[in-house]
Amino acid sequence: MLNNQVSKAVRLAIAFGAASAASFSASTIAAEEGAEKVERIQVTGSRIKRTDLESASPVLVIGREDLAATGELSIGDILQQIPAAGAALNTAFNNGGNGATNMDLRNLGAQRLLVLVNGKRWVSSLGSTVDLNSIPAASIERVEVVKDGASAIYGSDAIAGVVNIITRRDFDGVELSLYGGENMKYNDGRQYSADLTVGTTSERGGLMLNLSHVTQQEIWAGDRDISSMGNSSTTEKGRLRLNSNSISSDLRNQLIAQGYTENNAGESNAGFDLVPNGAGSSVGLDSFRDRDGDVYNYAPENYLVTPQERNSFYVQAFYDISDDVRFVSDFMMTNRESSQLLAAMPLTIGASFGAAASRVDIHENNIYNPFGETLYGDAARSGVEGYVPFAGQRRFVEAGNRIYRQNDTTYRAMVGLEGGIGDTSWVWDASYIYGKNSQDVYTTGLLNLTRINQALGDNCNAATSCVPLNLFGGAGSLTQEMIDYVTFDSVSREGLELKDYTLNFAGDAFELPAGVVGMAVGFERREESGYDTPDPLTQSGETSGNQRDATSGGFRLDEAYVELSIPVIDGLSISPAIRFSDHSAYGSNSTAKVGVEYRPIDDLLLRGTWAEGYRAPSISDLYAGNSDSYPTLTDPCNSVDGSTPDLPGCAGVPNGYAQANTQIRITNVSSPDLKPEESESKTFGFVYNPSAIEGLEFTVDYYDIEVTNSIGRYGASRILNECATGDNEASCDYIDRDANGNVTDLRNFLQNSGTYNVEGIDFYTAYKFETEYGSFRTSLDVSYVMTNEFDGEDQVGIQYGDAGYPEYKGTFALDWALGDFDAHWQTRYVDRMQNYYDVLGYTPFYPGMAAEIGSYTVHDVSVGYSMDAYNTKFTLGIENLFAKEPSPEYLNNDLAISTNNFSVTEYDVNMDRFVYLRATFKF
User: Fold this and answer.
1) Does residue 774 lie within any of the structural domains?
2) Is 638 part of any domain?
3) CB of 800 within 8 A of CB of 107?
4) Model confidence over 846-887: pLDDT tens digits?
5) Cα dihedral across residues 153, 156, 159, 161: positive or negative
6) pTM strictly above 0.90
7) Could you read off the pLDDT of 639-652 as tens digits, one per residue?
8) Beta carbons within 8 Å of 191's beta carbon, 6+ residues apart
9) What span, in angstroms and rounded, lies between the C-alpha atoms of 177 and 171?
């Protein structure tokens, strides 16, 4: 029976991992015919060592050879391609990205997935997500993904599952790996890497170190047809709206005499929408024209893939102090320099664009003001004699692009002891982890609103060291002197510090008639503190960028757990576990888990789990300072046919109100009173590896996860719609409007009220077989999503901007090896998705918009050749062999769904054949 378990464990390793069981050299069961003892190993998802790799929890194992066969340089990019992965941040996020790559499982959010390295926590961000780019791929032996709730075993964040990254061990010699690749057609997106690994082992200890460098160059959005158009409401010429009910009758008559149209004449928000007609320092009413459909295309100035450089150092060591005690330690440090690039800063001033922007006035004595009247931005000053409100927009193209540069450093050190207790089966380990992440963000091209207000004021001239600003001369009218006076560069800093203390014991507790009861017990204390210090102008709100207050805070979490493995009858065992937690911010809570394994016959394992999970609120959730955001939102009170929609919440909005800007200012607010998120997950399935067909494996697992009290914002769009329709009148209390109807602020709060429910089936099969033509291995991994609900709204099969939720995703792989050659082919499939705006019924009004995004299949191939005499291997690979491009989400210029017009989490962003060459030398 023991040997049968060994055989099946090895077959599982073959099926789930690399082309051979060699990737499990650190954990493969050791047994010989007739042996009485079998080495026990610890499988991710349990603290109890066991003799079988198969467990009650579904676990996906990706071996080192599989990692190398992908051609990817980031473990985060590899994990985002598995079918069970959801939408998560990566380096294709330019607007809103920060150079990090996260992992999402089951579309529950990256913050609900726990990331471990060698079974211990990794350093996270203020929002409790882990940047997987901080873990060099060259140091990784394999990755184990637990696809069910594991909070009772590992603690907070393990709601969707656990990613455990196992590093290389017992390495002897020197290995140098060089990599280079680029897109064939566009000759861009170049990537380079160099990795040096050195190690030595002896009877008492071992030492390994790894040095890694990665360079990823940019791809421009304007260089791909699908992402080359992104139209903004602002223009490089500028736009101005004057309320005709407030300006003097003389100016109103002059404008009409010049031929300008008075929009919404006779209504409360009637006015003139003017666009400068050309450049020049001298402007008058004849230098304007009526506003038309011209807009600014920001896409060519944006990155599609952002550039970065990463340098990593990893060292690990162990030493046997005695036969029963081993000293273990590791240290990893990664520095990342990354950047994002956006089009020139848009200036939005006037009552329609928030508190800071509304403080900007254009004085009648300003030398570039052609109207002869002071234009006021603040509607609250309507009692001033001669009050003339305005709203203005102008893209500062003369100032150049905005650049966001991050200098991010993550390091983590672990020291510990591990050993056995005499001649018993009990083992123990104790460790201390110190980790820290710090990031400096340098931003160029921002606008100082205080300086802009001065430059548009009454007394701005050389004598006051002030440079007047010409907003009415059209594109090219801003001089370098003007730009230097009103622009500034900012520096912000943020960081997180982790201290983690653990003590674990595991062994045989007692014996029952059916076998020995295994037991694990442990204690953990985790302390985290963090900060975010924005630039002073950003904190004060005197910038054209988003205002953000400083963040500072931390917490302490003490936990204890017990896990059992109880044999009930021959072939049937249950594994209960419970964890108790005490959090300094919200108090105490507990989570439990029960796993069941039943082997009715030697070839078949039936398994199931029930688990409670939780996620403690992060530092950002609890203590983040208020911050502005300007999402693209459609105001439901916006006039479509010249009259305000007949909705209860729009009753106080002026008739004929037209939304001045699709980017509405909202204020994001945190809360120190948040409670932990809670979850309940269920899985059941089977593993079948028939003895009659050696190397064949089938795995089917059903999952159902429900998250309650999830921490999230109520939702800006939801607040707007609930207020307008009258479904929730309280939502109107969170909205501020000016006298013209424009939304000037919307407060979006964090709360424990959201729910998630995901349900689906994972299918996996693999088969390895030998022929006279070589060794073959095939595998098929499919994820079928039955339910993906957020707050009761099912999102299956729908594309939401940069995130998509396909019903089916799958990968098929074929690996071959013969002598010195090996080859790999992988196909990734994404099911078709419906456009969210089509779901809302918008596509009939926008006939250029695609109602559905077609299914997507991409092929990756590679061929390797080993020169054993020289300990050298060369690999040539092509990602996206047929240069497959995603279907466009929309062709209409007025309603953008996402920044790049396709989901950067589901599709290949290169849209080209990416060819790479890797050379590995061993000494």
Assistant:
1) yes
2) no
3) no
4) 444 556 778 899 999 999 999 998 999 999 999 999 999 887
5) negative
6) no
7) 866 677 889 999 88
8) 73, 179, 180, 181, 182, 214, 215, 216, 217, 916
9) 15
